[in-house]
Amino acid sequence: MIEGAGALRQDFAIDTGTRLCAVIGHPVGHSLSPAMHNAAFQAMGLNYVYLAFDVADVGACLGGMRALRGFRGMSVTIPHKMAVMPHLDEVDEMARRVGCVNTVTCEDGRLLGTVTDGLGTLRAFADAGVSLRGRRILFTGAGGAVRAVAFAMADAAPEQITLLGRTPEKVASLAEDLRGETGVTVRTGALDDAVPELDGHDILVQGTPIGMHGHDEGRSAVPGGRLRPDHVVFDMVYRPRRTRLLEDARAAGCVTIEGLEMLLNQAALQFERWTGLTAPSTVMRRALESALSV
Ligand code: NAP
Q: How many alpha carbons fall within 13 Å on the CB side of residue 257?
């Protein structure tokens, strides 16, 4: 527990004891993190504030944060998730394997980096009552989010992971890293094979932007009627909350997990790192749902 983390208070005036947390990225205007974290700090009566900073020079930003005694933690978003790494004092095993950092915690002036996207997703699966042990997991996409989730899932003893993407070199590169770092069995293929591949898998993790608002909303990355009631379908896209894929999966009787659950749980893990307290998930969920609805 950090000094002052338990300093409960009744009012929420910012004062000299206020701890600073922030998201850095470019752009950051769309970020849902301030809504979730400030709601959590207020609900827990913590003297913390969470801001959003549009940052161009990552090194200068990290140097400045390190110098600020009241700085406690940082979320890192696109395009800085890799660029922050050389500026940190320590990067944990998960972040090293995934190759990016989405969470920085300042401990006695030292900046520690980790990545919470994958472990947050595991928590979302646990909340949904879905075990990954011995399961066959099919991923669509091979970008940063899939990378984080695949590494976390590989540690949960699945029988096999299959990666499908549109750029074979990127798929092959992630597959090689996963095999080398975790020893999990990994197959690869083309995104066009997603529908027939469903038959041999238990869990579908949709990790492309297909179906996203402003991208191609209404389209499904895995169209057609091959979903079975025993499939678990997780779509990382969170805007809209109910993508076409999730609607199809619900209609087929599948267990479905929304992208919102990943977003919520990665933030809950950040909150827990920065405060040493259990995250008020219900409050954070309400704030997230409200921010997503505008
Ligand atoms: P990324 O690093 O840019 O990777 C995107 C992946 O999707 C790449 O494999 C890319 O293929 C593929 N792709 C992009 N457009 C495609 C298309 N039209 N058809 C087929 N494949 C396509 O992005 P990311 O950060 O991994 O994010 C992926 C998705 O997850 C986004 O929708 C994002 O909003 C969502 N996400 C959700 C959360 C959450 O908390 N719920 C967190 C992070 C991301 P190429 O390599 O060939 O370009």
A: 26
Kindly report the backbone phi and psi dihedral angles of residue 223, in degrees, each rounded to the nearest multiple of 5, phi listed first.
-75, 165
The alpha carbons of the chain give a radius of gyration, in whole angstroms, of 19
Kindly give the residue spans of alpha helices, DSSP state H, lying in 25-114: 33-43, 58-67, 93-98
Q: How far is the CA of 37 from the centre of ligand 1 (A)?
A: 24
CA 44 to CA 177: how far, in whole Å? 40
Q: Mark the ranges of the chain whose per-residue pLDDT is less than 70.
A: 1-12
- Given the CA of residue 212, which atom of ligand 1 is nearest to it? 32
**How many residues can be counted in the chain?**
294
Best residue among 208, 238, 292 to mutate for probing ligand 1's pocket (most ligand atoms within 8 Å of CB) is 208
H or E, element range at 71? strand 71-76
Q: What is the pLDDT of residues 93-132, one digit of tens each?
A: 999 999 999 999 999 999 999 999 999 999 999 999 999 9
- pLDDT at position 223 is 87
81 in active site: yes
Short-list 264, 266, 270, CA closest to 73: 270
pTM score > 0.70 for this model?
A: yes
Check residue 215 and give its pLDDT. 84
